[in-house]
Write a structure and sequence with these properties.
Elements lengths: L8 E5 L4 H10 L7 E5 L5 E5 L7 E5 L6 H17 L4 E6 L18 H12 L3 E5 L14 E4 L2 H10 L1 H4 L2 E5 L5 H10 L3 E9 L5 E7 L6 E9 L3 H12 L4 E9 L5 H6 L3 E7 L15 E4 L2 H12 L17
Parallel strand pairs: 1-4, 4-5, 5-6, 6-7, 8-9, 8-11, 11-12, 12-13, 13-14
Antiparallel strand pairs: 2-3, 9-10
Length: 327
């Protein structure tokens, strides 16, 4: 690794990016940038950067998770603050990109909010974006600035390779047709079979999993997706898989969004392991799942990406195992 210029590269942690930003800074042997976000009594936010950033290469880390609107607004204010402080380059590091599921018009008179958020980030003054496992790869094209789209596949594959012997006969199950390319990439790397669940969405809150294409009988099943939100899809799929005779089921998802009834559903589910990353700071919310939760860090991967961006190096080598993208 080339020597990091402590004076020129600055990493700032917004409120929902603090833990991950700290680990990324540790990976690069850098201190976090000095800044503070203050909330006024009327709900307004103000960001104060408390050190000189003129001519610096600045990275601000913020997952736009719940509360989504407040976190998006804080990110925009952070970018504007750094721009007005004459930062040379501003990179918005967005481990989890909120509004990513609103990426197209799937009915009349509906917005494409992912594009709106991309426009806002660009207009605020960001020079580039670094994100992790977008819900739809096409969101990269919503930005008029460079986007580095990272995948957590290398992190997951390293973990599952380390326990591959204990998994036995393994089947990768795609929880929906849109995730088949990703599931196939995992199946190839882990020398596993592939199965697909034919999912039908009945409403915005209810998903019915109806058919399984492939065999899971007497095998270990690994279900990989970009996120677990309400856990309705993945738990419905787990019920179907157990009915088909699987030995055990492991869930893996990059983003533990976990809203609504997610915790209750997962606690009562058939999953023997639930593997997630730290793109979203859970703040202890996942404690009820600690007996079967495995939490992996993407900090080294994203820290290496920051290093390469700062030194104008290619980061394509970090994608070599990430051959699948959703939709």
């Amino acid at each position: 690794m080339n020597r990091i210029d402590h004076d020129h590269l600055k990493i700032f942690a917004a409120r929902s990016g603090g833990s991950l930003a700290g680990l990324m800074a540790d990976y690069l042997s850098l201190p976090l940038g000095q800044a503070e976000t203050e909330l006024f009594p009327d709900g307004e936010l103000i960001v104060r950067v408390e050190e000189d950033v003129r001519g610096r290469d600045c990275f601000v880390v913020q997952s736009t998770c719940d509360p989504v609107n407040a976190n998006v607004m804080e990110l925009l204010i952070y970018i504007d603050c750094l721009r007005r402080a004459s930062a040379q380059r501003i990179t918005a590091v967005i481990p989890y990109f909120g509004y990513g599921r609103q990426d197209r018009k799937d009915a009349g008179r509906t917005p494409i909010t992912a594009k709106l958020v991309a426009n806002l980030i660009t207009a605020a003054g960001a020079d580039r974006v670094l994100c992790m496992d977008l819900h739809a790869a096409q969101i990269q094209g919503f930005f008029d600035i460079p986007v580095d789209h990272m995948s957590a596949m290398t992190v997951f594959c390293d973990y599952f390779t380390s326990i591959r012997d204990e998994l036995g006969d393994l089947v990768i199950v795609s929880p929906d047709v849109g995730n088949v390319k990703v599931a196939n990439a995992y199946a190839s790397f882990l020398d596993a079979d592939l199965a697909i669940i034919d999912k039908r969405r009945e409403s915005g809150m209810k998903v019915a999993s109806r058919n399984l294409i492939g065999s899971v009988k007497n095998q270990t099943v690994l279900m990989v997706d970009d996120m677990i939100s309400t856990a309705g899809t993945i738990c419905e799929a787990a019920n179907l898989i157990m009915e088909e005779g699987a030995n055990q089921i492991i869930a893996a998802a990059t983003h533990p969004v976990l809203v609504g009834m997610a915790m209750e559903r997962l606690k009562e589910s058939a999953f023997t392991k639930i593997v997630v990353t730290d793109t979203i700071d859970d703040g202890g919310r996942l404690e009820p799942l600690y007996d079967r939760l495995v939490k992996l860090s993407v900090a080294p991967l994203m820290g290496e990406a920051l290093h390469r961006i700062h030194h104008d190096m290619s980061i394509s080598a970090l994608f070599q195992r990430s051959t699948g993208t959703k939709r």
